[in-house]
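go over this:
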Amino acid sequence: MLRVGKLTDYGTVVMTYLAREPEQMRSANDIAAELGLALPTVSKILKALLHHGLLVSHRGAKGGYTLAAPAEAISVAQIIAAIEGPIALTECSDTEGSCNQETGCSVRGNWQRINRAVREALENVSLAELARPVQPIRFMTPGALPSAGSL
C-alpha cells in the first residue's frame, strides 16, 4: 500500500489550518492546541515547512507562523516534499544509481512514468483546494452493488 507518513498527513492538516485564515499569525502552541497535536510534532513540522520556504516565521510576543505564499500557489506536492523528501514511488523513479538492477530492469521506465503522473497530480492540487472542506468518500465493500440512493 502506498501512503504518506503520519508526519506528512499532520503537515497537510497544519498547512490547511493556516490557509483558512492566512492573515492570522499562529504560534506553535496555538496550532498544537487547536489541532490536538503534540507540540514537539507540530514544532518538527513547522521547522521542515519553514526550511523549505512554505512558511514565514515572525518573532516577538505576538509572533508566529504564516504562509510564505498564497494558498493557491502552494501545491500538495510541495508540502509532501518538504516533509518526506522527493516524491518517488520506487528507489529508481527519482534518481539514478540507487538500484543494482537498474541497467537491466525492464520496468524502470514505466515506474518513472507512473511516478511522474503521481507527482503531477499532486502538483495540480493547491493548498487552497485542500483547505476547502469536502465530504469524505464512502467506500463500498468489494462485490457489493451500490443502492439507487447512493449513486
